[in-house]
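tool_call predict_complex ligand=zinc ion
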Amino acid sequence: MGQIFEFIADAALEVLDDYYTECHVCNSTGVDLYTYQGKLMLEDGTVDDDIYAVCADCIKTQPLIPSGEWAYSQTIRDYLTAQQTTPQAYDALLQKLLKQYRQTPQLPLFLQYDDRPLCCNTLTEFTGYPADEKELFHITENNTYWEKQVAEKSEYMDFRKYGLPEGERDIAAFRCPACNKAYFTFQFT
Ligand SMILES: [Zn+2]
Ligand SMILES: [Zn+2]
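tool_result ok
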């Protein structure tokens, strides 16, 4: 698991470049910032939705809601429904998974919608994009495919046969921190 963020491997973690100079939550400068598009729920009940770059401390402690939560929370609900948990366990797990999601910056960059694989009632850890062709073949041929749930690969994901995806970051790899099972997602523009 990552040292800075539990669900992003340190080698896959990217700090924002200096276009942004201060944390949009605490206004600190000179700290590493991470991509986080979302809103901050302020104590007076108002919402600051002008959030794009946030420091690690704020991501892990402040009441932030990622912009993709509405859609991704449905993926979480569908996953939990499939586990056939009791209603009490369902609610506790829903809160746990939402918290994990809210406390993780938006890496990888999902081009269509947030779709971090779920396994063993936890978020999985983003381990990186394929570094080269060999790794891309390895990931897409060995990891379990995830598309809102464990899903069948389409025949066009035979990248040896149909050629490489256009974007270098269309493929993202993940690992379950509990059982070590490896997953991948494929989203393109
Ligand atoms: Zn901050
Ligand atoms: Zn697992």
